Amino acid sequence: MIWPFRRRNAEEKRLRETEETTQVTLTVPDDAPGLQEAIDAAPDGARILVRPGRYRESIDFSGKQLTLSSEDPRDADTVARTIIEGDGNGTVVNIVRGEGPEARLMGFTITGGSARIGEAAEGGGVTVRGGARPVIENNVIHNNCSELDGGGIYIDDSAPTVTRNQIRNNAAAGCGGGVHVGRDSVRSTGYEVEPAFGERMGRFLDRSMPRTFQITASEDDSEHAFRDEASGGFVQEREEEERPRPRVEGNTIVGNAAMWGGGLFVSDEAPVIEGNAFRDNCAHRGGGISVWDNSRAVVHRNILVGNVAHEEGGAVIVEWGASPVLIANRMTDNHSRLGILSVATNSAPIMQRNVLSDNECSDGKHLYLWESHRAVMEDNQVAGDEE
Questions:
Q1: Tens digits of per-residue pLDDT, 322-339?
Q2: Phi, psi for residue 20 in degrees, rounded to 5
């Protein structure tokens, strides 16, 4: 007798093997000279395998559900040698036509993007718009800039999964030096900032900036934080949500700069920000993370170390009526003038089990709460003391 579950398992295995053998695979540069030529030629469901090399082009997924991958996305040497380099005139990678989770960008170094202010906002390294839901995984996104928002990655009204990337040394003149998540763009004008901050921003935004500029970080930080919660992370209502959430999980976000949100800026969205390492990012407000404008972000189990805000919120700032959930984040050795974790008027975050230690701020208040704030706080540790 053949048990029904055995027959079903055998049939599923046969279907998987058939799908694998029928999947179209194109190799660059063997089957197409460049990445965009391969994308244009590929059908939905195809896999484009890219050999190591420097590909000087900007690309668009063109609405296709395909995998664009280096030969070994998990090998750091392969990723470092498989480079998509923009020409300093726009986004390097565009995923902006409603692509689904079958669209995957894996295992590249993405650099040289320089987004200009135009009819549609875009990021320097990667732009995700139009309700797209791609997976962006195991990439190094560095030395890109934007005249508006999202120096490294710009996400607008979309729900990608951004996981296990190194996002470093990017800059935005507005919001989100590393990553911008939201539906609006804010151009900063008329603000006076300290000379040191202005000089750093200028260095990032100068098109002739040296491509060898680096800020060292531990590459294991985000991996450790992500694995620590892999089996027990913040899962409340994850599967029941009607609208897909953007997810920024398990990344190392280091050495980025912006006016607001040096590492990450979130506005008018409800993303999951989990298990990331934010290190050595710089902003006028919100050195590591800035949460704005009614955002309901879940900010869980992140490490924030060495971030700097020249005004307020060395690690995190919550303002303009935002109501995120901040749980079990660690904030160490961050610097600002007002507060390491700052909550502005009418903002209503829920803050539980966060730890703030060995930080430095001029006013001496590591947790800075404006009047009329509506924060709910429980079991936080500030400067080593129980709340």
A1: 999 999 999 999 999 999
A2: -65, -40
